[in-house]
Design brief:
Blueprint: H1 3-15, E1 18-19, H2 20-27, H3 31-43, E2 47-52, E3 60-65, H4 77-91, H5 94-112, H6 121-134, E4 139-144, E5 147-152, H7 158-163, H8 166-179, E6 184-187, E7 196-201
Antiparallel strand pairs: 1-3, 2-3, 4-5, 5-7, 6-7
Helix pairs in contact: 2-3, 5-8
């Protein structure tokens, strides 16, 4: 990102909000120049502007970060997630732990289930690929003999899954619940493969 725009974002992160003049003083540029940079940041949905009306004087504008801009700042969710999962492993019996993780997968799938209602299996596979891409997995799919292959080119939980293999089991159960039937994992990024891939059978085997 262009240096001045990054400076503006950092200032807004620290201050919460700032006027054009305050930003100009901080970055040592003219308000006209800073306004150009703000226009680009607004266009990219990283900065929003709000009109403020005081009791006296003319209204003025303040700038602040959007939720999208928060993704540009460092996050270490994996550290907390690993500690939570480690605590679960230490304190809960395996049966209770597995029931908890299964519950998480079920609630996760429930949040997305409305997007799959009334769809054929092929349409579900396409929609799940879109859902997983939105969740950071960069997914695609293709039809294969007897079913469909869903591929993830990125693991959003890689650092956690390497330390806690049952994270992959949560993901697999989540996908199975979305499709309403068991799926078969073919490869796993966490185990050193290039992609995570899952086979979704077109017909379920007879019991």
């Amino acid at each position: 990102m262009q240096r001045t725009r990054r400076q503006i974002l950092d200032i807004l992160k620290k201050r919460g909000q700032a006027t054009l003049e305050e930003l100009a003083r901080e970055v040592l540029l003219s308000p006209v120049t800073v306004r150009v940079h703000l226009s680009v940041l607004q266009r990219d949905d990283l900065v929003k502007v709000e009109e403020v009306r005081g009791r006296v004087g003319r209204p003025f504008f303040v700038y602040s970060l959007t939720e999208e801009a928060e993704d540009l700042f460092p996050k270490r969710y994996h550290v907390l997630a690993s500690r939570l999962l480690g605590g679960i492993d230490d304190l809960l019996p395996a049966e209770t732990r597995d029931a908890l993780l299964s519950h998480i997968a079920a609630k996760w799938a429930e949040e997305r289930s409305s997007r799959l209602a009334g769809k054929s299996l092929a349409e579900k596979v396409a929609e799940v690929a879109q859902i997983r891409t939105e969740e950071g997995a960069i997914a695609d799919w293709e039809r294969t003999d007897g079913g469909f292959l869903l591929r993830h080119y990125n693991c959003p939980n890689l650092l956690v899954s390497r330390a806690h293999a049952h994270v992959c089991a949560i993901e697999e159960e989540y996908l199975g619940r979305l499709f309403g039937s068991p799926i078969l994992r073919q490869s796993c990024i966490g185990r050193g493969d290039r992609v995570c891939s899952f086979l979704i059978p077109e017909r379920q085997p007879a019991d």
